[in-house]
Each structure stands twice: as C-alpha cells, then as structure tokens.
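FW: tagging you since you asked about this chain on Friday. Here's the raw sequence from the shared folder, copied in full. Didn't touch anything.
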Amino acid sequence: MVKVRAARPAEAEDLTGLVMRSKAHWGYDAAFLAACAPELRIRAGDVTARRVVVAENGRGEVVGVASLEGTPPRAELGLLFVEPSAVGQGVGRLLYRDVLRRAVELGVRRLVIDSDPHATGFYRAMGAVPVAEPAASAASPAAEAGGTALVRFEAAPVPLADWARAWTGGGRAVHLGNVGEFNAQFADATLDREQRPAHHYACLAAFYSPYPAALVLPRPVPRGWTELVCRQLGWTGVEVYDGLLDADPGLAEAVRARPALAALLTGSGLPLVPWGRTRAFGRLAGRPWRDGELRYESKSAAHGLFGRILADGGHPGIVLPRQWRVDGRWAAARMLAARTRAGESTVLKSEHGVGGSGTTVLTPARVRAAGGARAVLRRLPRGPLLVEEYVGGAASRGDEGPRDLTYDGFVDEAGRAHEVGGAVMEVADGCYRGATVGPGVVPGWAEKSLIAFGAAVGRELADSGYRGWFDVDFVADGTGRLAPTETNLRLTGPSIAFMVAARLDALRGAGHLVRIADRVELGARLPEAQLDELCTALARGCAELGAVFVPAIPTGAFEPAPWLGVLVAARGREVLDAAEAWVRAEALAVGAMFGPS
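HL: got it, structure written out here
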C-alpha cells in the first residue's frame, strides 16, 4: 500500500533523479531534459522550504514526489512527479489529494498548477480548472528548447463543510442501510410489502456521510461497485458487510443476531448512521426510543406543523395548501367529484409514502378520462387518505424555473438544528426522479423563503424530541411563493447528493454541482463483470467531459427491467446536463450489442 510522508533532505539527489526520469517518460529529447534540469532540481535545503513530500510503496521504495510552495492565500503545486514504473497505479492521485489537503490546513484558497502538456488530462480528471492566465514558466529556456508551453490550472482548496463536520463529528462513520426497516414501521399500503425497492435503495448507505468506515447492507452488492465508488471519492479502508438478510426488512435485528458483528460495529467508537430511526436501531445503538419522535413523517401531522409555524407570521414567501382528512373512500369520491365539477385539480395522498408513492395528482380531465371520481378511488391503494388542493406551478409564472424544491437539515443529539441547504428536485407526475444540489441551484427568488422556513421546521422538530436528518419538500406556486408539502424524517436522495458534494469539494476544490438520478434505464441486464466494465467506462467518459460519475445503486441492474441509480457532478450546469444525458444514452445503448430482440 502506498503512503505519503515528508521527504528528507538526504533524499534530495535521489528525488531529482526521480523527477528527471518522470519527465523523460513523455519522450522528450536530451536537449530539452538538459534545459529542464536546473528548474527541476531538488536541493537539500528545498525539502522543507518547498514542503516536499514523497509517496512510498509497501517495500519502502519512493515512487512519487510533490511539493506545495508559496504562502496563503495563494500557493503553487511546484512538483508532482511519479516514477515511470508506477504510472497508472494511483500514486499521482494520492499525492495531488495530499497537496490539496495540506493547502486547506495552511489556509490556501488558490492553488496554481503549471502543467506539462502531457499531464493536462490528469489535472482535469482531478478537478483542477484550466485558466487563461499564461503559465509562469512558459517562456523558460526549457520551454523554448522543447518547443512546448506549460498549461495553467487552478484549484480552490476548501475544508469539509461545517455541517458535514457536525453531522458525524468530522470523522468517519458506520452506515446502516436500513431503508426497508424504516419503511416497514408505517404499515402503509403504498409501501412495497416485500421491500424489494427498499433493499435496492439501501445501496445509498455508501453515501450516508462524506467518508464511511463501514457499510452494512441487507443484500449482496457487486465488489466492483464498492471499489469504483471508493476510487471516485478517494476512500480507503471501507469495510463492507452485505447479504445479511433474505427477506425480512429488519436489518438492525439481523446485526444484533450476530453478536460479534454487532460488537465490532458498535464498539468502534464511530458514529452509527442509519437511513432513518427505528426502535430496532435504538436497541442496536443503545439509544432510547422516544415514542412519537417520527410523528411528523405523517403528511397530515406535518401539515399541522406547517400551519402552526405560519400562524406565528414571518414567512410571507410561504403558502400552505388546504388539506382535508376524509372518512372513507366514498367521502373522498364525493369531495373529488365536487372539486372536479368546479374545475379544480386535486392531490390525493396517503399518510405515508416513499418517493411519491401514495400521491396522485388529478386534474379534472384526468378524472373524467378515468371514468369519474369513484373509478379513480377504486384504483388507488387502500388505507387512510388525504385530500389536498393542488398548487399551480411555474407555468403560471410564465418562466422555466424549478417547480419542486427541498430543504435539508439535521438535528444533532444535543438538540441543535443545522442547516445543510436547498436543492431542486425532478418530480414527474408526483413521483421523485432525482435532485440537484450545489451553488446557485436554488433560484434567488426562492432561496430566502426556503431556508428560513426549513430552519423553522428544524427548530420545531428539535423541540419535539426528534434527532437526525430531515427535509422539507416544497412546490412553487404561480406567484413566486413556496408551498410546503411534507417532511421526511430520514436521509433522502437529495441528502446523498449533499454528502457527495461535500466530499468532492474537499477532495477536488470548491464549487461542485451534484445530481442524483433515481433511475437510469439500462438497455439490457448485464452479468456483474460487464456491469463493472460499463460503470468504469461511464466514469472515464464523464471525466473526459469534465464531470465525475459515481454509480449509486448497482443492484437494480439485475432486475428484469434493469436500471441504475447514479450520481453525476460537475462545476457548471452545462457540463452537468451533458454528462447526465451521455450517461443515460450510453446506459440505454448497452442492449444494442445483443441485436434486435
């Protein structure tokens, strides 16, 4: 295993030799290398002054060297060279990330990189941004001799976000993928009884914090998936405990039934992070279960909470849609019929649901096409039902602005509410399809209202005794106001995107937009090895576009109608959109290799 350590002054001559061998690897002639030699020489006195570090393999051999030079807030990556025999083994990536980490610790906010033309692909893949400013050494004797010019890049080193440090205490965590266990608490007819979708979404346990120590999963996952995710996000030493369940959704109980595993996970001293709180998780974690702490997961209870917050005033940018709890299906049918005759659209909701399940949006035309209100009700799942007025959206404003937004935050064990931020969701016919987070994603007209109301909900949840992650979902009306629709007292798809954005910003420099796409359709079911090849190719192709690809849910690829959950990141909306479109096209095209069906 390769590790980074401080260089020693006595190594200066050997390190100069490594640098020159690495430079020669690109095929430069002797005259050019001789002209480069004075600039690339490392003297004994440089080792400390230039903050030189080396990469050392398991045999104690030095296989790479890097330097961080200058004073905050601006510094330079003076050297980054890898022994030719070690090129392609991740040494350069390890050294670059170490430089970025040390730059953060020094208070550097602008890291300048003057790259050899042959290394530009590497720096792009590492997240550095090319700039128009000419490289300082472009007119040096070496450049003139070789007829080459260096290419300037920059990175913006930043520490891990404050909220991310508060979430797990700034360190690593154990992630428990108890999605099915959480859903099963609510005994709602809209939730899949066999919890098959829940076990797929348990793969998101890889992203419950910016840097996991261990993943605990109900179903087996492909080994290649975890290896690729670790490579893309710079994780090392992540333990995976999978295949703990056959059918029952109780993952926490499955861990408790394995005393050695339970002791290992709970005795590590690391935070134990679930998808959501359950009584069984409380027993595993040694945390008392508080009756009623999840009561605002109910849509009617959340609606009541929103109403109480708005009754105090102070949120002019928020409007609350009217909601009625109906006694029986015939009462719901009568109310729906009356609203349809009045030309009003209606939302029918179950008390609980996941990703929009149990929520049906009904326009008058849709009700008539279905054969009337009673026919509509007969096709819906059984169980308690809420009737809610429909909130008109962006089309009424005459713009292309987002319709569905969300606020994410969490309440720590001390009862302090923390703001994470806002995101824009993709919702089709009431069903969640994905979300985008990052700077500038939430439009200015919505941001202040969204943040203020989300924070108010967080304070109320803290006072009610809830501890953990939460979000508040909104729809935008036709006048620039936001209508809160529900709270989710658990991690969510947008929360996963926030975790990955925090990690990439710390790993590659500030400013990442991250999009989680709930379902990317595959053109064919693939064996595990071919799925690994596809994901590796998608990662490589996105890097060429200036984006980052991370497979989020691999197990859906083995379903009869195969799909993937994916994360795509970039520093600009145009690149992000292009990368997502390319990933979707490539994933769908995998069926073409098999010819006509």
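FW: Residues 497 and 514 are 6 Å apart (CA to CA).
HL: agreed, and The first strand starts at residue 3 and ends at 6.
FW: great, closing this out.
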